[in-house]
Specification:
Layout: H1 5-10, E1 15-20, H2 25-33, E2 38-42, H3 50-60, E3 66-70, H4 76-84, E4 89-92, H5 98-108, H6 128-138, E5 140-145, H7 148-152, H8 154-158, E6 165-168, H9 170-176, H10 188-203, E7 207-212, H11 215-224, E8 228-233, H12 234-250
Parallel strand pairs: 1-2, 1-8, 2-3, 3-4, 4-5, 5-6, 6-7, 7-8
Helix pairs in contact: 2-3, 4-5
Length: about 250
């Protein structure tokens, strides 16, 4: 049985993942069969809705890739639905501070740790009672750090009971700090910040993740302490391969 995200993190293993943005289960299946450790279904910026997410999660089942899902925004109902459909980890974007982060974490966990409503329609197919006993120890709530409010209250967010991780969104975070959007930042102000976040997270017993644009930068971020590293997407892989092949044909 594939290791869960929490199990991999307990071994201090970095988990590399790519984004699933296309509402076609076959693209996720191809990437899972290639051996990607994690796939993140992007309901924020991708073309995926809940119905497509269900089909993709069904295809991923048993293929070894950890099923992560990014919800569009802070909506406890959407968070609970993502978990009921079978997501193991949920990333919540555009968190503005500790109060919103706490609302999100609470939505991920069953009582008495949280307020998640009971109804794991797909997540509990292997046994609802067993899922009830294990869910709070399996599910990973991940707060995206990309706003000034989240950055200013980072230590308070990291101290939230039940928080599984934080995930740096470099595009919006750079924009919030007065720079243009973009990944793989090298500006001293931004790079110092990016190197500081995983150290603060580890001190609080929480893991950190980040999105990267290149393998070289991803390697650097692993060395800096990040343990969830996303890079690329199904759409970007398709676009790049098609563009390069067409360019070679027209050369």
């Amino acid at each position: 049985m594939p290791l869960s995200l929490r199990a991999r993190w307990s071994r201090d293993e970095p988990v590399h993942a790519c984004w699933i943005t296309l509402p076609e289960p076959l693209s996720a299946e191809i990437l899972a069969r290639q051996g990607w450790p994690g796939l993140v279904l992007d309901l924020q910026h991708g073309a995926i809705d809940e119905a497509a997410a269900l089909r993709i999660l069904q295809v991923m089942h048993g293929l070894g890739a950890i099923p992560l899902l990014r919800v569009p925004w802070l909506d406890p109902g959407a968070v609970m639905k993502a978990l009921d459909l079978g997501a193991e980890a949920v990333i919540c974007p555009m968190i503005e501070g500790v109060e919103q982060a706490e609302t999100f974490v609470q939505a991920c966990l069953y009582p008495p740790m949280g307020i998640r409503s009971w109804g794991p329609v797909r997540a509990g197919l292997d046994g609802a009672a067993a899922y009830a006993d294990s869910a709070n120890g399996l599910v990973v709530p991940i707060v995206q750090i990309e706003t000034l409010g989240a950055l200013e209250q980072l230590d308070a967010i990291l101290d939230l009971p039940g928080l599984g991780g934080v995930f740096v969104g470099p595009n919006d975070l750079a924009w919030a700090l007065g720079h243009g959007p973009g990944s793989d930042r090298e500006e001293p102000e931004l790079l110092d910040l990016l190197l500081d976040i995983p150290a603060r997270a580890r001190a609080a017993g929480v893991q950190a993740g980040i999105h990267c644009a290149s393998a070289d930068y991803a390697h650097r971020m692993v060395q800096a302490g990040y343990r969830l590293i996303t890079i690329g997407s199904d759409a970007s892989f398709l676009g790049r391969a098609g563009r390069e092949l067409l360019g070679s044909l027209e050369a």
